[in-house]
Amino acid sequence: MNRLRDIVAVPIFQAPMAGGPSGAPLAAAVSEAGGLGSLAAGYKSCTEMTAEIAEVRALTTKPFAVNVFVPHPDHADADDIDAYLVGLRPQAEELGVSIGDATWDDDDWSAKIEALVADPVAVTSFTFGCPPNEMIVALQGAGSKVIVTATNPEDAATSARSGADAICLQGIDAGGHQSVFGDSEEDVRGFGILALLAAVRGRVDVPLVAAGGLMEGRDVAAVLVAGADAAQLGTAFLRCPESGTNAAHRAALEAPDLDRTALTRAFSGRTARGVVNRFMTTHRSAPSGYPQINNATKSLRRAAAARGDYHATSLFAGQNFALGTQRRAADVVRTLMADCADILGPTVWTSG
Ligand SMILES: Cc1cc2nc3c(=O)[nH]c(=O)nc-3n(C[C@H](O)[C@H](O)[C@H](O)COP(=O)(O)O)c2cc1C
Question: What percent of the chain has pLDDT over 90?
């Protein structure tokens, strides 16, 4: 019995991808295709988030998710951050922009939660931590399912204990930020998605959504067999026409000189996986300092992307980005399902 079938017709979740890719057109297209589309509220104000929710609702009546970043207290070392930013000056000069202020903010956290309780969406998902039980209960009371993203068995257990309806397990293979609840070296434990599923599946009694490096139907089949109730894919949707992925990022995903990914804090001060480019190889030792470093590098990343320079901007993507294709989102969902059904049988979605 698939425990998420009251939300979706097929167990394909489109990963929230902040920074542009997963806006309303992509989220609506995936939900229309029977999967779960997801808006990324990260880096946005509450007003921008609610406007985007309205945009999705104008495009589809199907359920969709909104993903919110859980803020952390400001523990960063200002001297370490300043020293790191000095090293970015040559890049800033070359791009003709100033490095931004390395300010801390909470990503409009309280306003977003209040808005999502007042006007709920089908699913509210969380990244970078687990919200308190009262907040989860408030969202559930308003009619939203709550999913918390975890990268290790302990954080998955915490999320289940806090009342999450489902847990999104994110492997180290995943593109974008690792949803670690801290960001010290020890917090990034490095579980691959199959190892993480095996470590968590007997330990919690809520549905599991598996994310990290999944690109094809057989990958979806693999995680379903390994105990997941759904597969969440991000990179597989990055090149869809409905995706808001910028042109530099799109070009990088098929550039002959870029062939691997790595983890880095260089762009944001938080560990994330991206395609290895010159920015990453030049700035290897960024300190932990999110969102300060993210705020400081925004002007550089934007300017580089605007001039199509994929060596000077962030290129978040999962390990298997080279398997990505440029097809409509509904096509991606359909192909994933068809190839998965070839392996597991046609009833996997509704009665598997
Ligand atoms: C460009 C990009 C942006 C991302 N932004 C977010 C985000 O805002 N919130 C989140 O929970 N995960 C984010 N992720 C991680 C995804 O949720 C998911 O874990 C990941 O895409 C799975 O790995 P894959 O890209 O190999 O499919 C992002 C991933 C990418 C590639």
Answer: 93
